[in-house]
Amino acid sequence: MSFDAALSAHLQSGATTTCHAWAITRRDGLVMGFTDHDRDLSFGGVTFRADTGLSASALQQGTGLSVDNSEAIGALNDTALSEEDIEAGRFDGAEIVAWLVNWAAPEERQQVFRGTIGEMTRAAGAFRAELRGLSEVLNQPIGRVYRKPCGAVLGGAGCAVDLDQPGYRLEVEATEVTDLSTLRFPPLAGYAEGWFTHGRLEVRSGPAAGLMVPIKADRDTGEGREIELWTPLAASPGDGARYLLEAGCDKRFDTCGAKFDNILNYQGFPDIPGEDWLTVHPARSGGSGGGSRR
């Protein structure tokens, strides 16, 4: 008998022993299990803890392409969901799977929800998390914008740059962290000033390990390098933490060729006429042409 059939037979028996269980998989790979039963459950290689106070409101599901949604609420707990982890964004976009389970026979279960965690709010020692169904991605606009800058993500699909090549990433320890948005490093030999501008900083060790923030500016101070972040780190990295600096791309055609030798994969349109050319009156001179700039 399948899981679904066994649970269906149990529900039709009239005397049920069911509960809900949730498995959360964070983007850093950590898997956490929770249940609203009064005892821990285990199945699928995951232990679902009963002492978290996690529960969920009624699940709204529809046919077709409508967006399923639900909400999870619970108490903040240092050994489960801590306020520091939520503030640091460690649960943003985490995958969540929910089951209806016969706690007397956990092999009898039915998956009732699968999606991701959306907005999370916290107050008075509790949290509230929005659960987004798989059809949520259908709300995102899809299409290509015709513009001069490249539309690809550095190292992602369509770019073809291998960031694991020498020179594109550097792991180093900071000499000073001032206000969580400005970090100072020793001189970075072989990396020109501005090399990491528009790139990304990732904390590799310490209390903030796993946090990633885009880099706003990369300056040579004469005594070392100063990295300014677009947003402050959501948690203090502590002393002795190591950081991974990733090269940045300003999406320009010249940068794609000179810095990454990747012109063949450039995902922009460097020769497209600008707005000034599109609105100019016809003229016999060749100054208003939209010809190739190369």
Automatic annotation (TrEMBL):
- Domain named Bacteriophage phiJL001 Gp84 C-terminal is located at 194-276
Q: Name one Pfam family in it.
A: Phage_phiJL001_Gp84_N
InterPro entries on file: Phage_phiJL001_Gp84, Phage_phiJL001_Gp84_C
Under what name is this protein listed?
Bacteriophage phiJL001 Gp84 C-terminal domain-containing protein
